Amino acid sequence: MKRSNINLLVCLDALLTTRSVTRAAERLEMSQSGMSNALSRLRELIGDPLLVRSGNEFNLTERAQTIAQKVRNGIELMEEIFANEGSLDLAQTQATVTLAAADNLGLNYLPTLSRLIADQAPGLVLNVRAPDPDHVKEWLSEGECDIAIGYFPEVHPDLRRLPLYSQPMSCITARGGCPAMTLEAYLDRPHVVLGSPFSPRSTLEHTLSHALKAVGHERVRSVRVPSVLLIPHIVAGSNHIATLPTWICEQFAAHLPLDIWPVPFPLADIETVMVWHERTHRLPLFVWLRDLIRQIPPGPTGPSRARPR
């Protein structure tokens, strides 16, 4: 069977057990749209609607009732086959794990994560690479990467997803160089943005551009960089402006001449998520590592709303 069909079997089990797209998505920590897509693919593969609406609820079709126990038996068999029978001895573990995380998230997670790994699993080697939203599913499923952390608005339904925290956004300008942050001032200034033509696509910048276009405007993007950590230094020495997660603005404003401003147009918080593939979902080492990451506080001092300059 194709790997995708095995992952669909997990979705099918959740759908037949919960009889709800919403509850099945919550159970597998997937988006509702991802589970709806999985249901559509299952209906096509099996040739049956599986779930049919009756009032405010869904009922199983006759075909779904027939295969429900077989599906459950198959899931239990896979769990038995892939279960790690030995207990995890972190002190003796010798392994290499690859984490995909942008450098700004590395600034948040890696100092604490590195210390905890050194203390608890000294034989574990952590490789870190820059994420690529267009290839994260391929990397995770084929073993080029084990865990990815970032802003992934569209997570493939074959991947597991856990929200970590939401990041409010703010603007930064050189200190004293901007009397007020209006939409007009925001549009007049040249912008420093993440994502040069030689680096992976930035979902953050795509979201910013989309939100600005929703109110009928577009930024003048005059400098494109591959690392978010370069942006505050460029802004501090120029008349440029940048839009970044608030905690990053505050982190750099502590030692660079920067002013922090609220974003002058409607912009939702950016949700940072951790994603991984089913192949590592039950392996004790990765369960431990994901739990370690989940417990690290969001940002050096925690995210907060922009303060007046």
Structural features, described:
- With 309 residues, the chain is α/β, with parallel strands linked by helices.
- It folds into three domains: 3-82, Orthogonal Bundle (Arc Repressor Mutant, subunit A); 90-166 and 270-295, D-Maltodextrin-Binding Protein, domain 2 (3-Layer(aba) Sandwich), CATH 3.40.190.10; 169-262, Periplasmic binding protein-like II (D-Maltodextrin-Binding Protein, domain 2, 3-Layer(aba) Sandwich), CATH 3.40.190.
- The protein is 41% helix and 22% strand.
- It has helices at 3-18, 21-27, 32-46, 62-82, 103-120, 136-142, 183-188, 203-214, 231-236, 246-253, 284-295; strands spanning 51-54, 57-60, 95-101, 124-129, 147-150, 159-167, 169-174, 190-194, 220-225, 242-245, 258-262, 270-277.
- It has a five-stranded mixed sheet. Strands 10-7-11 form a three-stranded antiparallel sheet. Strands 1-2 form a two-stranded antiparallel sheet.
- α1 (3-18) packs across α4.
- The chain is globular, with a radius of gyration of 23 Å.
- The chain starts with a helix and ends in a 14-residue tail after the last helix.
